Amino acid sequence: MSGNVRTVLDGLRDALQGITMNRIGVMAQEMIRNHIYRGNGFAPLSPATTAYRGNGKPLMDTGSLRDSITFEAGKDTVSVGTVRKDAPLHNNGGVITARKSWLYIPAAGTRRLQRRYGYKPGEVLAGLKADGCSVFRIGRTVCYKRNRRGAEPRTVYYLKKSVEIPKREFFYLTDKEADLILKELGSEIL
User: Fold this and answer.
1) Which residues constitute the domain of residue 190?
2) Whether 153 and 120 share a structural domain
């Protein structure tokens, strides 16, 4: 075989391998994203979370975790992952402990306030104060009250030292999914 033919064949093999690794990456990425979307076997949302954001699927509030699953294809390898720092905690479960004094857990109705003032507790509380509300603590709750006659105090945050996040494993491939990828790899190479 002449040098030119060998070079062309090697180039075709390398191009085909790149396409195959890319296709495998897309398949694995979508399979993992589907685990999040389907939520099979996930622990249900806590009552506090449901009160805050309403009914829904775990890990599917905004879709940002699902959308963060990406892949990188090399010549001989594919890596699937995410840059989200909270992904391992959601996948494996664990405990979040307050770094300073308290974790601020949003209460029912806080989401509306966050959309208005910002998502950080300090932004919400500063926004409420700027709008003329009284902000105060009652035990382990942060409350606010509109400065109007007959206005009732409302809880905006629950204060906790730690919260347990249940395991909601999504970052895996089933045997059936792995077989599909292997069949795809085999069909590309043949």
Assistant:
1) 1-93+167-190
2) yes
Q: Specify the pTM.
A: 0.78
Separation CA 108–CA 120 (nearest Å): 16
**pLDDT (tens digit, 9 = 90+) per residue, 117-134?**
999 999 999 999 999 999
- Helix or strand run (H / E) with residue 151: none
- Give every CB contact of residue 48 below 8 A, 6+ residues apart in sequence: 105, 107, 158
Residue type at 13 in one-letter notation: R
Q: In one letter, which amino acid is 65?
A: L
Per-residue pLDDT tens over the stretch 145-183: 998 888 999 999 999 999 999 999 999 999 999 999 888
Report CA-CA distances (Å) from 170 to 34, 36, 69, 71, 83.
9, 6, 11, 15, 15
154 and 178 share one domain: no
